[in-house]
Amino acid sequence: MGYFYVLLTVLLTVYGQIVIKWQVVQAGALPDGLERIRFLALLLVNPWVASGFLAAILAGLSWMIAMTKLELSHAYPFVSLSFALVLFFSWLVLHEPLTWPKVLGIGFIMCGVIVSSQG
Q1: pLDDT in tens, 52-91
Q2: Segments making up each domain of the chain, as ranges
C-alpha cells in the first residue's frame, strides 16, 4: 500500500506543475511595478491554479502516509518518475519541445530508479 501513496504523490505533483504552468502561460507576461501584485493575486484566485496548490498539499499528505509504510531511501527514488511524467505532459499538454537530450536524460533517471529499487 505504501507504493500507492508514492504513486499518488508523484501524480499529484505532476498535475500541480502542469496546471500551474498552463495557467501562468494563459495569463501572459509578468507585468512591471505594482501591476505585478495584481497579476499574481489574480493567478492565486484562479480555480486551476488553486487546484494546483491543493494538489501540492495533497501530495505532501500522501507522502507522509507513504513514509509510515516505506523506508525513505527506498521510496524517494520513485519520486524521480515525476521528471519523466512532467516531460511527457509538458510536451503533450503545453506543446513544449521534446528533445533527444531531454529524453536521454530521462532514460538515465529511469535507469537510476530501476537500479536503486533493487536494494
Answers
A1: 999 999 999 999 999 999 999 889 999 999 999 999 999 9
A2: 2-117
